[in-house]
Amino acid sequence: MEQGDNQSAENLLVSSDNGNELEDLPVKERCFEQREALPEEPRCVVCGRYGEYICDQTDDDICSVECKTILLARLAAKTKPATKEAKCVNLPFGDESFCITDNNFPNIPTLVASRITALRSKLDICVKGEAVPDPIMFFSSCGLPEKLVCNLETAGYCMPTPVQMQVIPASMSNRSLLVSADTGSGKTASFLIPIIAHCSRVRSHQCTGKLGPLAIVLAPTRELCLQVEEQAKVLGKGLPFKTALVVGGDPLAQQIYRIENGVELIVGTPGRLIDLLMKHNVDLDNVCIFVLDEVDCLLERGFRDQAMQIFQALSQPQVMMFSATLHSEVEKMSNSLAKNVIRISCGNPSRPNKSVKQVVIWVESKQKKQKIFEIMKSKQHFKSPAVVFVSSRVGADLLSEAITVATGLEVVSIHGEKRMNERRESLTRFLTGEVSVVVSTGVLGRGMDLLKVRQVILFDMPNSIDEYVHQVGRASRMGEEGMAIVFVNEEDRRLFKELVQVLKTAGAPIPRELANSKYTTGVSLGSGRKRKSRSRP
Ligand code: ADP
Ligand code: MG
Asked: How far is the CA of 9 from the centre of ligand 2 (A)?
């Protein structure tokens, strides 16, 4: 679509749905980026998704570079059984080779050293630091407890995501890390897996004695803590690994009781954890992993001093910091927390996740409610479950009621003034599909994995473009496609320049009013991208 044409907001939404602004999509690297096959379409011989490509070596239909790797590794394993000698097979990352060695994990290719740089560049992994450990291709390649590998399989994690490929081995070498990667790229598991491996190793050698926590994860919102703890429980099931959730809104006494009875991991918000540590003597001597998730948000919300206070109570732990967006403040913080930090970045974290189609609509403030009702009543445009982001707590309550009245949809609202139990219950009802829409302030914008959400509506533009990236990112999980509908008008002019840059990079349509605004001047408006046909990767 050309910039600056005269389409109304309504047409803009319709034309974006047709998707004809896309050209030259890159070959899918990962299996999860591929869609399901329609009945008449070719299927990937490895995973059954849409077989968009043909494997040059075998002529089989495959969905992505990842499945091609698996297919060729299987083939190599069948035709050339592993012996004591290492053997090389050609795998599809350019001309690089992998080695099949007779290690503890038969038929698992490990990377030939000279090809690691090529692999990193294919997967968009950048590393900075001294002696950065090599990435892994398989969870079983780095000595994780068998039960943990089993739990990963049960959770449906067939292969590590790119960020996990690099972070897990680096973390398991006890290095401190500063990691930035796209939203929904699997950062949570990338720190939980090494934590669980460490805890179960320590506990299985320590039958008695001190049972103080071994790791602490701090995150900026209660909901995110809840989700990180849930994921930790799933991945650590059946291992000597217990968790405590330390967030405001839940009774402090219960949290203390749980920690007193012995836990391996504490997941909490900085404020409540400080509160707990002041009121109760917790033995932190054995904490040797300290994680700051969504670290830029922790800093923006003024948690710096509290995070530092907690850090100072620990004995020089390994520090891991994660975010989808990084700033100089974060860099400064990382330098004050650890030496010899490895910096890892995957994808283009300061831009919205590529799997989310951004549809920006120019809507005057008075018309916003009418517009959202229209969208939600339209079978073509509304995709539930959906999250609506607003800027104020009162706004969240009022809008959720108004949507229910106007559309008859089941809607809940979540914001910081609601009691924790209420927030937890609303989130559960939403995640289990009982209600189809949640209207939220920024509390759900950060790090939350909102399962199955395919549409977010930014009813109010957030305060910064970083926050925009995070909120838009909620519409996609692990590369699956989603849509973000964004309402803008002149009141959001402070973000126009950055927003236009972001939309341009994504090849998304730019509304005429935004393109022509005097607040957008200085940004060159280039053309979009083309759709790609079936090809050989
Ligand atoms: P991030 O923290 O990068 O925003 P999350 O850690 O919340 O993303 O992960 C997004 C989703 O991907 C979660 O539902 C998680 O269960 C899933 N996931 C993580 N790692 C894998 C993997 N290796 N294979 C499949 N799914 C994964
Ligand atoms: Mg996260």
From this structure: 33
The CATH number covering residue 42 comes to: 3.30.60.220
Whether 123 is in a domain gets the answer no
Provide CB contacts within 8 A for 136, sequence distance 6+.
Answer: 142, 160, 165, 168, 169
Residue 329 and residue 361 share a domain? no
In terms of phi and psi (left: phi > 0; alpha: psi -120 to 50; beta: otherwise), the region of 262 is left
Nearest CA to ligand 1 atom 2: 187
Q: Tell me, yes or no, whether 132 lies in a domain.
A: no
- Please tell me whether residues 67 and 25 are part of one structural domain: yes
Same domain, 229 and 248: yes
Parent domain of 75? 9-79
9 is written with which tokens? 């907001």
Same domain, 224 and 317: yes
Residue 331 and residue 380 share a domain = no
- Asked whether residue 535 is assigned to any structural domain, the reply reads no
User: How many residues are there in the chain?
Assistant: 537
Q: Considering 327, 346, 365, which residue would you say is the last residue of a domain?
A: 346
**Looking at the structure, do residues 186 and 325 belong to the same domain, yes or no?**
yes
Give dist(CA 512, CA 493) in Å, integer: 14
Beta pairing, strands 482-488 & 356-362: parallel
Q: Is 185 close to ligand 1, i.e. is its CB under 6 Å away?
A: yes
> Any idea what the CATH number is for the domain that residue 447 is in?
3.40.50.300
Report yes or no on 116 lying in a domain.
no
Return per-residue pLDDT of the chain as tens, 537 residues: 334 333 333 333 333 333 333 335 677 877 777 777 777 778 888 777 788 888 887 888 888 887 787 777 666 655 543 333 333 333 333 333 343 333 333 344 455 665 777 778 777 889 999 889 888 888 888 889 999 999 998 888 878 888 999 999 999 999 999 999 887 889 999 999 999 999 998 887 766 555 789 999 999 999 899 999 999 999 999 999 999 999 988 889 999 999 999 999 999 999 999 999 999 999 999 999 999 999 988 988 889 999 999 999 999 999 999 987 777 888 888 888 998 999 999 877 666 777 889 999 999 999 999 999 999 998 888 988 899 999 988 889 999 999 999 999 999 998 888 887 788 888 888 888 889 999 998 877 776 767 678 899 999 999 889 889 888 988 876 667 889 999 999 999 999 999 999 998 888 889 989 988 888 876 554 443 333 445 555
With 0-12 / 13-18 / 19 or more C-beta atoms within 10 angstroms meaning exposed / middle / buried, residue 422 is: middle
- The residue whose C-alpha atom lies closest to atom 18 belonging to ligand 1 is 186
Q: Could you tell me if 307 and 400 lie in one domain?
A: no
Binding site membership of 14 for ligand 1 (Cβ less than 6 Å)? no
* Distance, CA of 449 to CA of 227 (rounded, Å): 8
Residue 175 Cβ < 6 Å to ligand 1: no
Distance 522 CA to ligand 1 centre (A): 38
SS3 177: strand
Q: Are residues 149 and 55 in the same domain?
A: no
What is the chain's Cα-based Rg? 24
